[in-house]
Amino acid sequence: MLSKAYKKTYWRVYRKSQEKRNFGKKNNPFFLKPKILKEISEAITKSKRTISSALDLYQHVAFIVPTVIVEHIKDQEARDASVALSRTCTIVFQKTIATSELRELDKHVWCWLGTIVKHADLGHISGKIFTINQHYLRHLKEIIIAIGPP
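Given the sequence above, the corresponding structure tokens read:
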């Protein structure tokens, strides 16, 4: 559930709502200029020649979001939330997860969710961002405890 849906959600939150499927609205704190998005997309496309598709999502989450993308987000809260979601995915994709990482995971999930709820309430991003995948994030810690990490 965190794979392609995550990337789609993430890319859609960076844009303003010129297209109905994008989540950003006026005063979107996650907004990236179209020129920046194009440059990042082109760099990712070029790198796909050397990165296997199995590693594609992990590479995106672990390296591209917290370095390349976050540096272009002006709003500090949105930057922190983006890094939190990135860290959430990085923890979830590990083979083993320590108890301390479960606490960290929960903190990061709620940072992300709290930020998008706040900005949806303010009308800065669309409520359409609240998909089943966002709901699933709320339960990650309990699922991992119940069935164990991957």
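The chain is about 65% helix and 0% strand. Try to locate this feature in the token string yourself.
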